[in-house]
Amino acid sequence: MKKLVEMSVSQLTVDPFTNMPIVILRDESGDESLPIWIGLLEASAIATELEKVALDRPMTHDLLKNLIGEVGLKVECVEIHDVRDNTFYAAVRLTGPRKKELVLDSRPSDAIALALRTRSPIRVARKVIEKTQKIDLGPKKKANGKGLVLPLGGTEKDTARLRDLLENLTDDHFPKWKM
Fold this sequence. Notes:
The protein has about 180 residues and is of the alpha+beta class. The protein has two domains: about 5-130, Bifunctional nuclease domain; about 135-170, no CATH class.
Protein backbone atom coordinates (compact mmCIF):
# COMPACT_ATOMS: atom_id res chain seq x y z
CA MET A 1 0.00 0.00 0.00
CA LYS A 2 1.30 3.46 -0.91
CA LYS A 3 2.21 5.68 2.02
CA LEU A 4 1.22 8.84 0.12
CA VAL A 5 -1.98 9.35 -1.85
CA GLU A 6 -2.06 12.01 -4.56
CA MET A 7 -5.10 14.22 -4.18
CA SER A 8 -6.47 17.38 -5.74
CA VAL A 9 -8.80 20.12 -4.61
CA SER A 10 -12.28 18.82 -5.29
CA GLN A 11 -14.24 21.60 -3.71
CA LEU A 12 -14.10 24.65 -1.54
CA THR A 13 -17.21 24.91 0.59
CA VAL A 14 -18.49 26.24 3.90
CA ASP A 15 -19.33 24.19 6.97
CA PRO A 16 -23.06 24.86 7.45
CA PHE A 17 -22.72 24.62 11.24
CA THR A 18 -19.69 26.84 11.85
CA ASN A 19 -19.62 28.92 8.63
CA MET A 20 -15.92 28.10 8.37
CA PRO A 21 -14.43 27.27 4.97
CA ILE A 22 -13.56 23.67 4.18
CA VAL A 23 -11.25 22.57 1.41
CA ILE A 24 -12.07 19.06 0.25
CA LEU A 25 -9.29 17.00 -1.27
CA ARG A 26 -10.16 13.90 -3.30
CA ASP A 27 -8.05 11.20 -4.88
CA GLU A 28 -8.20 10.56 -8.63
CA SER A 29 -10.61 7.63 -8.30
CA GLY A 30 -12.96 9.65 -6.11
CA ASP A 31 -12.94 6.88 -3.52
CA GLU A 32 -11.12 8.82 -0.82
CA SER A 33 -11.60 12.38 0.32
CA LEU A 34 -10.19 14.56 3.03
CA PRO A 35 -11.99 17.65 4.40
CA ILE A 36 -9.79 20.27 6.05
CA TRP A 37 -11.28 23.25 7.87
CA ILE A 38 -9.28 26.38 7.00
CA GLY A 39 -9.28 30.10 7.66
CA LEU A 40 -11.07 32.73 5.60
CA LEU A 41 -7.90 34.31 4.23
CA GLU A 42 -6.51 30.95 3.12
CA ALA A 43 -9.86 30.04 1.56
CA SER A 44 -9.76 33.31 -0.34
CA ALA A 45 -6.25 32.52 -1.61
CA ILE A 46 -7.34 29.06 -2.76
CA ALA A 47 -10.58 30.35 -4.33
CA THR A 48 -8.72 33.11 -6.17
CA GLU A 49 -6.53 30.52 -7.86
CA LEU A 50 -9.34 28.01 -8.50
CA GLU A 51 -11.47 30.71 -10.10
CA LYS A 52 -8.48 32.13 -12.03
CA VAL A 53 -9.14 35.61 -10.69
CA ALA A 54 -6.49 38.04 -11.93
CA LEU A 55 -5.49 40.59 -9.30
CA ASP A 56 -3.62 43.82 -9.94
CA ARG A 57 -0.92 43.01 -7.39
CA PRO A 58 0.52 39.68 -6.22
CA MET A 59 -0.97 38.23 -3.07
CA THR A 60 1.18 36.43 -0.48
CA HIS A 61 1.09 33.01 -2.17
CA ASP A 62 1.85 34.60 -5.55
CA LEU A 63 4.79 36.41 -3.98
CA LEU A 64 6.05 33.14 -2.50
CA LYS A 65 5.71 31.40 -5.88
CA ASN A 66 7.65 34.20 -7.56
CA LEU A 67 10.37 34.18 -4.89
CA ILE A 68 10.79 30.40 -5.15
CA GLY A 69 11.23 30.68 -8.92
CA GLU A 70 13.61 33.65 -8.76
CA VAL A 71 16.02 31.88 -6.40
CA GLY A 72 16.11 28.80 -8.64
CA LEU A 73 13.94 26.47 -6.59
CA LYS A 74 11.02 24.32 -7.67
CA VAL A 75 8.07 23.07 -5.64
CA GLU A 76 8.20 19.30 -6.12
CA CYS A 77 5.06 18.64 -4.08
CA VAL A 78 3.25 19.49 -0.91
CA GLU A 79 2.55 16.78 1.64
CA ILE A 80 -0.06 16.67 4.36
CA HIS A 81 1.79 14.29 6.61
CA ASP A 82 0.11 14.26 10.02
CA VAL A 83 -2.96 15.15 12.03
CA ARG A 84 -2.85 15.52 15.81
CA ASP A 85 -5.60 16.90 18.04
CA ASN A 86 -7.59 17.92 14.93
CA THR A 87 -4.64 19.95 13.62
CA PHE A 88 -3.21 19.02 10.23
CA TYR A 89 0.51 19.30 9.47
CA ALA A 90 2.01 19.80 6.03
CA ALA A 91 5.33 20.37 4.33
CA VAL A 92 6.41 21.97 1.09
CA ARG A 93 9.12 19.97 -0.69
CA LEU A 94 11.45 22.11 -2.79
CA THR A 95 14.39 21.18 -4.97
CA GLY A 96 17.17 23.47 -5.99
CA PRO A 97 20.36 23.40 -7.97
CA ARG A 98 22.09 20.02 -7.99
CA LYS A 99 18.79 18.44 -6.81
CA LYS A 100 19.33 19.64 -3.23
CA GLU A 101 16.08 19.09 -1.35
CA LEU A 102 14.59 21.54 1.11
CA VAL A 103 11.51 20.72 3.23
CA LEU A 104 9.56 23.58 4.82
CA ASP A 105 6.92 23.20 7.52
CA SER A 106 3.59 24.67 6.43
CA ARG A 107 -0.06 24.88 7.27
CA PRO A 108 -1.99 22.67 4.83
CA SER A 109 -4.05 25.60 3.54
CA ASP A 110 -0.94 27.59 2.63
CA ALA A 111 0.70 24.52 1.09
CA ILE A 112 -2.43 23.86 -1.00
CA ALA A 113 -2.62 27.50 -2.15
CA LEU A 114 1.04 27.30 -3.21
CA ALA A 115 0.58 23.91 -4.91
CA LEU A 116 -2.30 25.29 -6.98
CA ARG A 117 -0.17 28.22 -8.14
CA THR A 118 2.85 26.09 -9.00
CA ARG A 119 0.84 23.20 -10.47
CA SER A 120 2.52 20.88 -7.97
CA PRO A 121 1.09 17.61 -6.67
CA ILE A 122 -0.73 17.49 -3.34
CA ARG A 123 0.05 14.29 -1.48
CA VAL A 124 -1.58 13.04 1.70
CA ALA A 125 -0.10 10.44 4.02
CA ARG A 126 -2.18 7.30 4.22
CA LYS A 127 -2.12 7.57 8.04
CA VAL A 128 -3.81 11.00 7.81
CA ILE A 129 -6.63 9.57 5.69
CA GLU A 130 -7.03 6.66 8.08
CA LYS A 131 -7.04 8.90 11.18
CA THR A 132 -9.64 11.26 9.71
CA GLN A 133 -11.96 8.42 8.75
CA LYS A 134 -12.48 7.67 12.43
CA ILE A 135 -15.43 9.57 13.77
CA ASP A 136 -15.20 11.12 17.23
CA LEU A 137 -18.69 11.90 18.48
CA GLY A 138 -17.72 13.56 21.73
CA PRO A 139 -16.80 12.45 25.26
CA LYS A 140 -15.94 8.77 25.35
CA LYS A 141 -18.46 6.33 26.69
CA LYS A 142 -17.31 3.10 25.10
CA ALA A 143 -15.73 1.97 21.89
CA ASN A 144 -17.94 -0.18 19.70
CA GLY A 145 -15.08 -2.02 18.01
CA LYS A 146 -15.60 -0.29 14.65
CA GLY A 147 -13.29 2.67 15.10
CA LEU A 148 -16.14 4.84 16.37
CA VAL A 149 -16.52 6.39 19.80
CA LEU A 150 -19.99 6.65 21.29
CA PRO A 151 -21.00 9.93 22.96
CA LEU A 152 -22.23 9.96 26.53
CA GLY A 153 -25.87 8.99 26.39
CA GLY A 154 -25.54 7.78 22.79
CA THR A 155 -26.51 4.33 21.65
CA GLU A 156 -24.95 2.10 19.05
CA LYS A 157 -28.10 2.67 16.94
CA ASP A 158 -27.57 6.47 17.13
CA THR A 159 -23.94 6.02 16.17
CA ALA A 160 -24.87 3.75 13.25
CA ARG A 161 -27.39 6.32 11.96
CA LEU A 162 -24.79 9.10 12.19
CA ARG A 163 -22.15 6.92 10.51
CA ASP A 164 -24.58 6.13 7.66
CA LEU A 165 -25.38 9.82 7.26
CA LEU A 166 -21.71 10.84 7.15
CA GLU A 167 -20.69 8.01 4.83
CA ASN A 168 -23.37 8.96 2.31
CA LEU A 169 -22.57 12.67 2.14
CA THR A 170 -21.63 13.87 -1.32
CA ASP A 171 -20.43 17.18 -2.71
CA ASP A 172 -24.08 18.05 -3.42
CA HIS A 173 -24.79 18.15 0.34
CA PHE A 174 -22.49 21.16 0.70
CA PRO A 175 -23.15 24.45 -1.03
CA LYS A 176 -20.33 25.72 -3.22
CA TRP A 177 -18.46 28.59 -1.65
CA LYS A 178 -18.31 31.56 -3.99
CA MET A 179 -16.07 34.57 -3.67
